[in-house]
Amino acid sequence: MKSGLPKKDVSETELEILIQLWDRGQASTREITEAIYDAPLDPQFATVQKLLSRLEKKGYVLSDRRKRPHQYRAKASKDAFLVRGIESLADKLCGGSLSPILTSLVHSKKLTSSDVRSLEALIAELEGQKASRKPRDSQ
To answer: Residue 69: is the preceding peptide bond cis (ω within 30°)?
Structure first.
């Protein structure tokens, strides 16, 4: 499953901005600055503006400059970003295989009963998809 996102990495601060955009749908530079910083100052506003511009150049953010204040929104969903990050990690560490990553996550964190039920439902769904792809015996 490919995410369609650029392969360029984002910094932690750029990720904070993306999270604000995912949570809000769209936002202005000032709204993002106020959400990230406790008492935003003009230099922080300029920093967020520069980071938004960088994210736009990298292909992660779209802007609407038709009115003031300019509005920004994430180009792809949080899920697509997550898929891209996991694919990248799998490629770098596991030869593209997701199994070691999933196993490590399951073993490193205590799963709630809700988590277990969700995983069981996902496995059942995947097994159902696998069964429906098998060629039927001809009689």
So the answer is: yes
